[in-house]
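Forwarding the complex inputs:
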Amino acid sequence: MKNKQHLQDELNEHAPGLNTFRHKDSGMRVPEGYFESLEESVFAQIEAIGATRRPIVSGKQPLSWWQFLQSLWQPRVALAFAGVLAVVFAAWWFWGKSATDAPYAHITPEDAENYLRKNLMELEPEQLAVVLPAEQSPAIMLENADGTPTEEPLHLSPEDLEHMLRDLSDEELDQLIL
Amino acid sequence: MQTTNKPASDEQIMNLLRSDGTFERGFRLLMSTYKERLYWHIRRMVVVHEDADDVLQNTFVKIYRGVLQFEEKSKLYTWLYRIATNEAISFLQSRNRRASGSLDDHDGMLAARLRADTWFDGDTVQQQLQEAIARLPDKQRTVFNLRYYDEMPYEEMSRVLDTSVGALKASFHHAAKKIETHFREADHF
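Prediction (whole assembly, two chains):
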């Protein structure tokens, strides 16, 4: 009732002429008995096209493995899955190739350590400074005047380390590094 | 002629539909409850009885297939109107596409079909009104019919057409003004 009044007010405001024949018959007709036979016509069409009803929706039930696998057969999912596989394969091929192409890619950290041990005396202090990364090199403990270690380790810059290495004997260097 | 009766509640219908043993009875009840309302909604959109009959039957087939997936987040009739509206708009669009190859006047096509419809026997005013409505764009005609004939509240219409209430109000006022102008020009007021 409230809605009817609202509609009447709307029409009075914007198109008052339409209010005059709002309840007039539209003039549209249907064949005699149309609505009575409609249900049978619909069922006949359902049977003719073999329409089946989709199962009840139950959003709380998780998918079974079989339903999950079936869902993968949908074209959109399969396409997306194939796309992801293609990207993964391309990345694997690219990085795998890059790794094998790198000249020292096969050298393990153990190999590098052994090499340093064997060839320590052949290395220049600058080379050792480069080998020791800046964030690892500063861990040098100094001694106080009484021979006790300082509370805090001395953090050295690469330049400081290079100068220090120049002044070390081979034995001291050996002890420091290894 | 356009009588509406509602012998069953939505809850009764849905309860019957949920069980395999009573599904057909539930679907028949759904059809008998809503067939006339849906028919007139579709008929006003597509104008001609034969087209309305095709669209209505397709609508019921779609409802048959999908009614168990209706999640009851809205009223049943809102969901039914939505399917019927989409089906009618798809029908009109496909007919417009078919006609686009010819030199048919799209705006006047429905009006011409109305004049040729054997199941229309309105007087001059009814003829003028239906022709003016038929000349509205599809979506605007849908909004006008739902409001003017079905007196559907805008909030409900918003759920059926998935359009904001503001846009629907604007659409209805625009349509009503166009029809009013059409009548003034024809000197019916």
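The radius of gyration of chain A is 43 Å.
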